[in-house]
Each structure stands twice: as C-alpha cells, then as structure tokens.
Amino acid sequence: MSLDLALIGFKGEATAASEFGKLRDRAGTAAPWTSEVAIVEHAGHGRMSIRGTFVGRYVDVEEKDHVSQPGAAEGALTGAVVGVFFGPPGLAGGLVLGGVIGAVAAPPTEAEAEPTLLVDQLRDAVPPDHSAIALLADPTHVDALLSALDPTDHAVVVRHSLTAEQTSAITASLAAEPSASPAPTVQGQGSPA
User: Fold this and answer.
1) Cβ neighbours of residue 28 under 8 Å, at least 6 residues apart?
2) Rounded to an integer, what distance in angstroms lies between the CA atom of residue 75 and that of residue 105?
C-alpha cells in the first residue's frame, strides 16, 4: 500500500478546522479525502490536539487534558501556605489556585494511550501556535485534496511519500485506535452505500 502524507498548515491554533470546512465545500462531500483527514492543533505551550482519521483509524488526542496529581497536591499545599497570610479566604483561594496551577504545570501522571510515533512526528511538523489539515492516504486522494486549495488560502503545504517501512511503523502505532466510521451516504448515516 502506497501512502502519501500531506500537511496543509495555517497560522493559528484553530484555523485549520475552518479552512477544512471551506475546502470540503469547494470539493463536495463526495471527494474521498473529506472522510480521511485529521485536524492537528499545536498549542503555544507545546501540547497537541489531533482529531480525525489516519489509515482507517480514528485518532483523538487531547494533551490539554493531561494533568499531574502529585503536581496538584504540591501546588495546593504551596498555595495554602501562601494563602494563610491572607486569612481564611486567602487559604481557600490559595489552596484551589495552587492545585490548579500545580496540576497543569507538572508533568502528567495519567496520560491516555496515544499513537506516540504519529503524535511526535506531527509535533515536529506543525509549529507551535499553528494548525494543519493532515491527510495520510492514497496519493490520488492527496492529489484531489491539494487540487481543492486556492492560492488565497495562505497555506503552507508539505507532502511526503512514505516508504514501506514508514507506512508499517505508522500503521502499527495506530493499531490500538478504533476503526473510523464510514462517511455518511446520500441516504443517511446508517444506510448502506
């Protein structure tokens, strides 16, 4: 199976989602790539959000919701100590605020399983404070997506043909992800094609 990876990058964390809607409207929902893309958002603080389809698997990565329980406890304790100087309201406020800051700032302790290889490659490819439409598919589907682009979209396009080894590695890293649902049909979501 020959696969190409295309990343259509935009400045702004949420820009790719709205640009995908415009591209889909231009091409029509019958274009095969419309049900094969993922939206990648790289936050300024380095955390990733990835939602969509890669090689028939649905990927839903949200690093923004990873928290640290020990960090929360340490932050709450520190906040409470500082808050003591401001009386009972300061103690309560310091406890809560310190806990929240500690939970977010410290390394996460309970992270959901995610396709690390894919996430790391996307983190390297999409700069912080940017987003991208990602398509990992048959080269003809990538061609169709790229032909829907308009020069006024101000997108940065990167395209790579994957080797057999790269395809195998990414496919293996996605094995634990759920199968993507098929695209809706003209008859409706649950109807056979």
Assistant:
1) 34
2) 9
